[in-house]
Amino acid sequence: MWWDNAVIYQVYLRSFQDSDGDGVGDLPGVLARLEHIAKLGAGAVWLSPVYPSPNYDFGYDVSDFSAVHPDFGTLDDLDALITRAHELGLRVMLDFVPCHTSIEHPWFREHPEYYVWAKEIPNNWRAAFGGPAWELDPQSNRYYLSSFFPEQADLDWHNPQLRAAMAGALRFWAQRGIDGFRLDALDRISKDAELRDEPPAAGPPPLPLDPADAELEHPFSRNAPGLEVPLKTIREAVGDALLVGEVFLPTTELGPYLEWLDICFSFETMFAAGDGEALTEAITAALQNSRPGWVLSNHDFDRLATRAGPGNGRAATLLLLCLPGPAFIYQGDELGMGNGVPATPVQDRHGRDQLRMPMRWDESESAGFTTGTPWLSTGEAEVPSVSAQERDPHSTLTLVRAAVTLRAELDGPVAVESPAPGTVVVTRGDHVIAVNLSAEPQPGPPADGLELEANPGDGRDLSVIPPHGGWIARRPR
Ligand code: BGC
Ligand code: MG
Asked: 265, 326 in Cβ contact below 8 A?
C-alpha cells in the first residue's frame, strides 16, 4: 500500500504557516508550504483537526465534524490543498476525533442520547488531564462523562444513531479525496456500558498517565471489550483509506485495533527515545506485536530533540527514519526544534504550548510564520530556520532529506539489537544503522561503506559508534 514505507508529516495547523496575518496558521498557509513537505520526501501530510471548535482543546473539541474552522479557511481552501498535494505526490490525512465532541456541538443539546450520562457520579473514572471524569451539566442537573477537558463530552458508541452520524462525517471527508485518518484517543472508543469502577493498579502504568489515573487499572473506562462494532463502522465508512490509531496502549494490546486499522502509533518507542536499550526493546516489541507507525514526538509530549536528551536529536531522528514501516515526523523536528518555553499568555491548560510553537521558515522576526502577531509566543526558538538550514550541507534538515532518500533503499530482513550500552543497531538487508545515545564511544557492528552520518564526522571510523551519534553503512559482503 502507499503507506508501507511512507514518511508522514504531521502539521499542527495553528502553528505551521499563517496566510492572512491573523497570527494563526491556516489551510492556504499549508498549501503555500506543501513543497517543503514534498521536498522532505514525505508521502503524506496529516493535518491536526480542521473542524470548527471553541478551542478549549484547540480543535480536539469539535463542534461540527463536517466543516472547516473559519480561522483555518474554507472547505474550498481544503479542496485546493488536497488537489495541490496530490499533484505533488502527497496524500492528505485528517485528524478525526471519534470519542468526544465539544459541549458546544449542537448534538450535546439536540441529541443528548449520543453521550454518556449519569444522575450521580457513578464510578471512580478519572479524566486524562486530571480530576474526575464526570462533569455536572447545570442545565439538566446530570453528569456527563468527560475523559479529557471538562468542555469535551464523551460520545456513546453503543448508540447506533451516533455510529451512523459519525460514519456520515467520515464519508463526507473520504468523498472529498482525503486519503487517511489519524483516529484520536481511540482507546476511549469502547467503554463499559455498566460504568463499573476501575480496580486499583497492579503496578506502574506501561505509558505515562496523570498520577491519580495511574493508581487505577483501566478495564472499563477505556479499551473495553466490544471494539469491533465501532471500528467496523469506521472502516466501512472510509473504505481503504489509511487508518492510523492513536491508541495509548503498549503494542502487546493493539491486536484488536489492528483487525480494523492499518497501523497504530508506537508509543512505547516514543517514551524510550533517549535510552538505547529501552528503544531496542520497544522497537522489537512493536515489530513482534503490531504494525507500528513509528513516532518519536507529536503535539502532546516533549519534542524529539528534547526527549532524546542533549545532543541525541540527530541520532534519534536518523534511527526513526530507518525503521521498517511508516514513520511520522512532527513539524519542526526536521529542523531539530526542541521544546520552547511556556507561552504567555498560556494557551493550553495542559501545558503543551512549548511543543506547538510556530515553524521557523526564515530568519525574520516572525520567522516567516505570520505578518501579524503569532497566536503563541514561546520565546526564543534556538534553531536555524528552514531557509538557513537549506543552505547548510550539515544541517538537520539536510540530514533528514538524505535519510528519507536513503530509506527507500532499505529493505530485506530486519534485526534490532543493543550490542553495547546506549546503542541501537538495526540491520536491514545490506545495510546497518548504528546509533549511540550514550556519552561514551561504543564498538560498532561490522560495516564498510559509509552511507550517511548523524553528525558530521560520525562515520570517520566505522569500528566505533561515536557518543550521541551514529551512521548508516553497508554491511560487509
Ligand atoms: C490528542 C490531544 C488531545 C486529546 C483529546 C489526544 O490524544 O492528541 O491533543 O488533547 O486527544 O482529544
Ligand atoms: Mg491565519
From this structure: no
Separation CA 397–CA 400 (nearest Å): 5
Q: Quote the pLDDT of residue 477.
A: 87
| Ligand at shortest distance from the CA of 129 | 1
Q: Note the pLDDT of residue 341.
A: 87
**DSSP assignment string, 407-449:** HTT--S-EEEE--STTEEEEEETTEEEEEE-SSS-EEPPS-EE
Measured in Å, residue 107 CA sits from the centre of ligand 1 at 20
Instruction: Quick: pLDDT tens for 311-320.
Output: 999 999 999 9
Q: Which residues of the chain register pLDDT less than 50?
A: none
Surrounding residues of ion ligand 2, Cβ less than 5 A: 18, 20, 22, 24, 26
| 236 catalytically annotated | no
User: Which pLDDT value is given to residue 300?
Assistant: 98
Ligand 1 touching residue 353 (CB < 6 A): no
pLDDT at 379: 67
What is the structure's pLDDT at 279?
98
Q: How far apart are CA 92 and CA 308, in angstroms?
A: 28
230: how many CB neighbours lie within 10 A of its CB?
22
Alpha-carbon distance of 313 to 310, in angstroms, equals 7
Q: Are strands 431-436 and 448-453 parallel, antiparallel or unpaired?
A: unpaired
135 is catalytic: no
pLDDT recorded at residue 380: 64
pLDDT by residue (tens digit) across 374-412? 999 876 667 999 999 999 999 999 999 999 999 999 999
Closest CA to 474 of 457, 450, 455, 458: 450
How far apart are the CA of 468 and the centre of ligand 1, in A?
A: 31
The single residue of 77, 95, 246, 302 carrying the catalytic annotation is 246
The CA 246 to ligand 1 mean position distance, Å, reads 9
Of ligand 1's listed atoms, the one at least distance from the Cα of 61 is 12
